[in-house]
Specification:
five-stranded mixed beta sheet; homodimer; about 160 residues; alpha+beta; globular; about 30% strand
């Protein structure tokens, strides 16, 4: 049926499933570019933000082995995604899977948990020895990761100039 | 005079000065490969470590604009180094200088301070809006950076698999 006749995605999100994300990169980055902006502490105009966002994505994709997963409802509509990248860790010097991104449109419904579990399975299969991620100091996700077995290894410090 | 007749570097380190490091990359990485190993939480054999160390360095050098400084004594002998890299920040989407490395053979003599100041000057000149770095949770350098005006922005979490 045409998408205008589908039930609202809020209603169908509970019946989500996780699929490979490689065919959904446009949706992934369309959602990410919107969400990511809220984490920036700098005021950027639309053009400057889009240009720099593009540079960041290209630089991230330039090294390592990448994997995407998306959560979709039964009509195939986007609900969230995970982006992982396998690289040699810069401190431990073993293969590590970095979770570069994990996002869900509807928190609290198990979508994030299902996404991180799929990313962890992939990491294990790829021979990663650990899984790493960055989380902002005030982000409530810090607790969420902690409950999932992640512990704090390093801090990211910065100074404006 | 031949280097065997020079006074020990411990004695000349106090009279250090900072120079561009691009002509000293061999010394920088020879020192770094030795020091970096102590931060790894994994047991790696020599061959595996050297191979993975090389991959990490090549991947870091593959993106961004890089700058090296070295501290030398009056005979030009290596005392420490700083490695900075200008990139678009993955969270703030502004140009940021990442301090990838700052090391000194003789802590407490102002070498690290002089190195970080030079890296910060470079960052400012290059148009960076901030300076970023990663420091391990138990590393006393965390306090040192804090005294130099760096504040904690994010945490690096990880889980072994």
């Amino acid at each position: 049926m045409p998408s205008s006749e589908l039930p609202p995605v809020e209603e169908t999100a509970a019946g989500f499933h996780i699929i490979d994300g490689e065919d959904h990169l446009d949706e992934i980055f369309d959602n990410d570019i919107r969400i990511s902006r809220s984490f920036s502490r700098f005021q950027l105009n639309e053009e400057e933000y889009r240009e720099n966002y593009g540079k960041v994505i290209r630089e991230l994709l330039a090294t390592g082995e990448h994997k995407f997963f998306v959560a979709v409802d039964k009509y195939g509509r986007y609900l969230g995604h995970a982006w992982a990248c396998l690289k040699i860790d810069t401190v431990d010097f073993v293969p590590s899977a970095y979770i570069l991104d994990i996002e869900t449109l509807f928190p609290g419904r198990g979508i994030g948990t299902a996404l991180i579990e799929r990313a962890e399975e992939w990491a294990k299969r790829m021979g990663a020895r650990k899984i790493s991620l960055r989380v902002e100091v005030n982000n409530p996700a810090r607790n969420w990761y902690s409950k999932k077995g992640y512990s704090e290894r390093a801090v990211f410090m910065e100074k404006p100039i």
